[in-house]
Design a protein that fits this description.
The longest helix is centred in the N-terminal third of the chain and has 26 residues. With 415 residues, this protein is an alpha+beta fold. The radius of gyration is 27 Å and the shape is elongated. It folds into two domains: 277 residues, 2-Layer Sandwich (Antithrombin, Chain I, domain 2); 88 residues, Alpha-1-antitrypsin, domain 1 (Roll), CATH 2.30.39.10. Strands 3, 4, 5, 6, 12, 13 and 14 form a seven-stranded mixed beta sheet that branches. Strands 7, 8, 9, 10 and 11 form a five-stranded antiparallel beta sheet that branches. It is built from ten helices and 16 strands. A hairpin with a 3-residue loop joins strand 13 and strand 14.
Length: 415
């Protein structure tokens, strides 16, 4: 079974394609399911770092936390129904380099691998939990293609539910938010904010992730004390800092230090990267290759580690972020999501994401959810033509009473 630690893998070129073609149009060389998973994981991780950098730039020095896998999964569901330029831009931004059927089957396999890691911790007895859920919400009077619904159920195990977007958008929003809260142990509340669902919303795709695990080597709360923490502006604040001495995977260079702290059961870990200098400068050069280098340099060392206790929740709309990365067509009138219905009648009105994290002496609890809100395109009505090119009657009337104030005719406008 794959460890979360090993999700970052090197990609292998496995496709022959013509310049400019979309990923769904590639001609695949025979590829094993395992290799497809590797390629998708690599792409997802590249998207994760791209998204991290973009979000950090827009966060003005604030804390950042999100679930790249939740976002990739929700957008992967949406990509299944994308066509032409819409699909090409999504593939570029999401780093999808496989045909859509292989992307879907790889998502299914990866999700099964991640969720099968749930177990009981050998040291603390606390459960290791990673639960991933998907949902497809459709307006009562809106018809999706059977093939699309089947793909959502088959590959994403999506619960399909009809709601009354057109008649009761607020009720539909509350129902979706209730589902998200249930799937995240009430850690993600009110995912979709008021006003995000409208009467022209036709479908919403959701993904929720809940994670809870104990440290393989828990911190003793007796050693936690208020200690200084230097902020980006060099000012100092005091925060509760945990401390312990134990063998961890560790690496250090002139530019950074890194520690990998495993969770009970060994199937997941937290990797902490501490730049020597300014964090934002470090982020400029941080990429998937550097992450691979950091992981390759880790080795078991006896480490006296101290780190803060922290807990926070972050909400964000990803629409502007995704458009900045190049996924523009999906959000406008030129969107082509004909794979949903057979018609070009949908566009993405918003992508919302919310994430919660708590790290303390016992371990980590985290949850996140993503919703892709899709509205009906307002197609321009075919005009009725009226060419006033012959004599006509005209009148001026008072609209409040219907009284004709002026009346006449035009036989020759040139007279």
């Amino acid at each position: 079974m794959k460890s979360l630690v090993n999700l970052c893998l090197f990609c292998i070129a496995v496709f022959v394609f013509s310049p400019g073609c979309a990923a769904r149009d590639m001609t695949p060389v025979p590829i094993s399911p395992e290799l497809a998973e590797t390629v998708l994981i690599q792409g997802n991780n590249r998207f994760a770092i791209d998204l991290y950098k973009e979000v950090c730039e827009m966060s003005d020095g604030d804390n950042v936390f999100f679930s790249p896998f939740s976002i990739s999964s929700a957008l992967g569901m949406t990509y299944t129904g994308a066509e032409e330029q819409t699909a090409a831009e999504m593939a570029e931004v999401l780093h999808f380099s496989l045909p859509v059927n292989l992307i879907n089957s790889a998502f299914r396999s990866i999700t099964e691998s991640l969720t099968s890691a749930t177990s009981n911790g050998p040291d603390s007895g606390e459960p290791f939990t990673l639960a991933i859920s998907s949902g497809l919400w459709v307006d009562n009077d809106f018809q999706l293609l059977d093939s699309f619904v089947e793909n959502m159920s088959r590959y994403y195990d999506a619960a399909v539910e009809n709601v009354d977007f057109s008649g009761d958008p607020e009720g539909a929003r509350e129902r979706i938010n209730s589902w998200v809260a249930e799937k995240t142990n009430d850690k993600i509340m009110n995912l979709i904010p008021e006003g995000s669902i409208a009467a022209d919303t036709r479908t919403v795709l959701t993904n929720a992730v809940y994670f809870k695990a104990s440290w393989n080597s828990p911190f003793d709360a007796h050693f936690t004390s208020d200690q200084p923490f230097t902020l980006a502006d060099r000012s100092v604040t005091r925060v509760p800092m945990m401390a312990q001495e134990e063998h961890f995977n560790f690496a250090q260079t002139e530019q950074w230090s890194a520690i990998e702290m495993r969770y009970s059961g060994g199937d997941a870990s937290m990797l902490i990267i501490l730049p020597t200098g300014d964090l934002q400068e470090f982020e400029g050069s941080f990429d998937l290759e550097m992450l691979g280098e950091i992981r390759d340099n880790l080795s078991s060392r006896n480490v006296a580690v101290s780190m803060p206790v922290f807990e926070f929740t972050r909400s964000m709309s990803l629409s502007s972020v995704l458009q900045s990365l190049g996924m523009e067509t999906a959000f406008g009138s030129e969107a082509d999501f004909s794979g949903f219905t057979g018609n070009r009648d949908l566009y993405i009105s918003d992508v919302v994401h919310k994430a919660f994290v708590k790290v303390d002496e016992e371990g980590t609890e985290a949850a996140a959810a993503t919703a892709v809100v899709m509205n009906m395109l307002s197609m321009p009505e075919t005009p009725v033509r009226m060419n006033i090119n012959r004599p006509f009657i005209f009148l001026v009337q008072d609209n409040s009473t219907g009284s004709i104030v002026f009346m006449g005719r035009v036989m020759n406008p040139a007279l």
